[in-house]
Amino acid sequence: MQNNKLDIEADVNNLDTVLAFVDEQLEKYGCSPKIQMQIDVAVEEIFVNIANYAYNPEIGLAGISVETQEEPLAVTITFTDNGVPYDPLKKPDPDVTLSAEERQIGGLGIYMVKKSMDNISYEYKDGRNILTIKKNL
Amino acid sequence: MQFEKNEDGTVLRLTLDKKLSAVTAEQLEKELAEKLVGVKDFTIDMAKLAYVSSAGLRVLLKAQRQVAQNGTMKIINAVPEVMRIFETTGFKEILNIEN
């Protein structure tokens, strides 16, 4: 089992650094393009949510910890922030059957995370939002 | 991202590459605000695009709504990973996607 952590300012402009960090941890497992993109999109959606809402209008820190386990091969990524308590899993799923005119974009990001990850959980503990996603590789 | 426009400014072709993330979607939104004026036939070539997040979907939907007022927008050459995003989110039904 390996565990590496990045602490970084929750700013959208740091997104590429965050994705590069996550990809580096996964590199040796040779994930398929499908799984790699699902993980990267999930990481983006959660990090951008923290960047936009957790400390707004201030900028605070986000922690991204990547833990990999073998047999069965899986990655668990934990996001922490000290911002306002917010459980994204409570947000209702968007109606993905509406027409282009009626479509709302709010909630689509976290919906994509729910659909593509094998597990997702949230807790608020010791003044921190802790969101964890798990994907089997 | 690369834009090609015809002489009278009604036909626009956009070639996207790599990622349509929160960072690049913001750049694209700014470019489109200017480039879509007067466009009736808008094609987005996604052959080299490997990644779309919800920020990217938002900009695509906004472009679709804008062009639909007096023209058509279509997406061509989307790779399987990107098609899967369109399917999961129901965007396959609301965008005009040719493969």
Topology of helices and strands:
The complex is a heterodimer of chains A (137) and B (99).
Chain A lengths: L1 E8 L5 H12 L6 H22 L6 E9 L4 E8 L26 H9 L2 E7 L2 E9 L1
Antiparallel strand pairs in A: 1-2, 2-3, 3-5, 4-5
Chain B lengths: L1 E4 L5 E10 L1 H14 L5 E12 L1 H15 L3 E5 L3 H9 L2 H4 L2 E2 L1
Parallel strand pairs in B: 2-3, 3-4, 4-5
Antiparallel strand pairs in B: 1-2
Average pLDDT of chain A, to the nearest integer?
A: 94
What is the CATH third-level topology name of chain B?
Answer: Transcription Regulator spoIIAA
The CATH architecture classification of chain A is 2-Layer Sandwich
> What overall form of chain A do the CA principal axes indicate?
globular
What fraction strand of chain B? 25-35%
The CATH superfamily name of chain B is: STAS domain
Structural class of chain A: alpha+beta
**What order do the strands of the largest sheet of chain A run in, or round the barrel if closed?**
1-2-3-5-4
CATH topology of chain A: Heat Shock Protein 90
Put simply, the count of helices of chain B is 4
Instruction: Look at the structure and name the CATH superfamily of chain A.
Output: Histidine kinase-like ATPase, C-terminal domain
Radius of gyration of chain B, taken over Cα atoms and rounded to an integer in Å: 12 Å
Point out poorly predicted stretches of chain B.
none
- How do the SSEs of chain A run, as a string of H and E? EHHEEHEE
Any low-confidence stretches of chain A, pLDDT <50, length ≥5? none
CATH class placement of chain A: Alpha Beta
